[in-house]
From TrEMBL:
Gene name of the encoded protein: fixP
Entry keyword annotation includes Endoplasmic reticulum: no
Sequence ranges assigned to domain Cytochrome c in this UniProt record: 98-186, 180-280
Annotated cofactor note: Binds 2 heme C groups per subunit.
Species in which this protein is naturally found: Candidatus Thiodiazotropha endolucinida
Entry keyword set: Cell inner membrane, Cell membrane, Electron transport, Heme, Hydrogen ion transport, Ion transport, Iron, Membrane, Metal-binding, Oxidoreductase, Repeat, Respiratory chain, Transmembrane, Transmembrane helix, Transport
Main location: membrane
Transmembrane residue ranges: 31-53
Name by which UniProt lists this protein: Cbb3-type cytochrome c oxidase subunit
GO CC, one annotated term: plasma membrane
Alphabetical list of InterPro entries matching this protein: CcoP_N (IPR032858), CcoP_N_sf (IPR038414), Cyt_c-like_dom (IPR009056), Cyt_c-like_dom_sf (IPR036909), Cyt_C_IC (IPR008168), Cyt_c_oxidase_cbb3_su3 (IPR004678), Cytochrome_c_Oxidase_Subunit (IPR050597)
Length: 283
């Protein structure tokens, strides 16, 4: 082909297409060649220092002995060291102290997130929003008190508020009248409230007592929300008639907060108490 080069004297390779399209032998620019050789050297040096070449089923070890696994283990160790420091602090502190320790309370919240999701969210909802029969944890309306100690005790010991069924003790008219007074947010306006013994558990002011978990009947917040299609008045009547956790009454409302003292460590419970307190309703 070179013999009939139609562009003699030119630095072409002798390959010509379409009459005048030629392949020339110009060298690449200098900067390009420098970059090329630099990357070749880099590749060789890297291959000597780090594992790169296949050797049997593995690879060469590399002069500096780096492995991905070592790097991973080192990373995990670093995280563990930071965690261990926080965990030691938590062990020696009360939940109330953790709550006000800035870095530590953040750690407790982050670490309780999974615990809460696994153990509590099925009943109380992911954000403490509650559910039918399960109290809201994110507001400041508490059955058993909202201090960090109250919450810690609730989680450790569990809770089971008991209200006896009043269907056999009270007439329908009395239940009706009491329910209307409660719906209006003023149970004391009905003399039955005092005379029929409601005050024994719900208090002289109808606001409930934290030791018993007896609900506040004056705030318009209902721990037992009406079922679908049921009116609020009927739902209140149901509670009065059949009670709560009354074992002798099959239609009684059920409300049991399981105890976690045996299932979770004391430190995990402290973290959870901080987590729940920080939903915003803690007192
Ligand atoms: C099986 C369902 C269930 C699970 C699981 C559960 N709870 Fe409860 N929890 C309840 C019920 C029901 C009550 C109300 C008890 C009552 O009315 O006497 C309650 C009450 C509470 C209260 C008291 C609320 C108040 O107003 O005083 C707190 C705090 C609480 N739970 C936190 C938790 C935490 C934290 C977890 C997870 C470790 C958890 N609960 C897991 C059902 C549950
Ligand atoms: C033995 C104590 C006790 C007596 C007596 C009692 N209650 Fe209760 N009551 C409770 C407790 C405890 C709760 C909350 C139960 C729970 O949430 O686990 C409650 C809950 C209620 C609720 C539901 C409130 C809500 O937020 O959904 C109503 C309504 C109510 N009581 C009305 C009455 C009336 C009216 C009387 C008097 C006829 C009365 N109770 C007598 C202990 C009592």
């Amino acid at each position: 082909m070179a013999d009939n080069n139609s562009f003699p004297g030119e630095n072409n390779t002798g390959h010509v297409w379409d009459d005048n399209l030629r392949e020339l032998t110009n060298p690449p620019p200098r900067w390009w060649m420098l970059a090329f050789w630099a990357s070749v050297i880099w590749w060789v040096v890297y291959g000597v220092l780090y594992p790169m070449w296949p050797v049997g089923h593995e690879s060469n070890k590399g002069l500096i002995g780096w492995t991905q696994m070592d790097e991973y283990i080192k990373g995990v160790d670093e995280v563990e060291a930071i965690r261990a420091e926080f965990e030691t602090q938590i062990k020696g502190m009360s939940a109330a102290e953790i709550l006000v320790a800035p870095g530590l309370s953040q750690y407790a919240v982050a670490s309780a997130k999974v615990l809460y999701g696994d153990n509590c969210a099925p009943c109380h909802g992911g954000g403490g929003q509650g559910g039918p029969g399960y109290p809201v944890l994110a507001d400041d309306d508490w059955l058993y008190g909202g201090t960090i100690e109250n919450i810690q005790q609730t989680i450790t010991m569990g809770r089971k508020g008991i209200m006896t069924a009043h269907g056999k003790i009270l007439s329908d008219t009395e239940i009706d009248s009491l329910s209307k007074a409660i719906e209006a947010g003023d149970p004391m306006s009905d003399p039955n409230f005092t005379q029929k013994g409601c005050i024994a558990c719900h208090g002289m002011d109808g606001k409930g007592m934290a030791v018993l978990g007896s609900a506040n009947l004056t705030d318009g917040i209902y721990r037992f929300a009406p079922a679908e299609g049921e009116s609020l008045l009927d739902s209140i009547k149901h509670t009065i008639k059949y009670g709560v956790n009354d074992a002798t009454e099959p239609k009684s409302r059920e409300a049991v907060m399981p105890k976690f003292g045996e299932r979770l460590s004391a430190d995990d419970i402290k973290k959870l108490a901080v987590y729940v307190h920080k939903f915003g309703g803690g007192q």
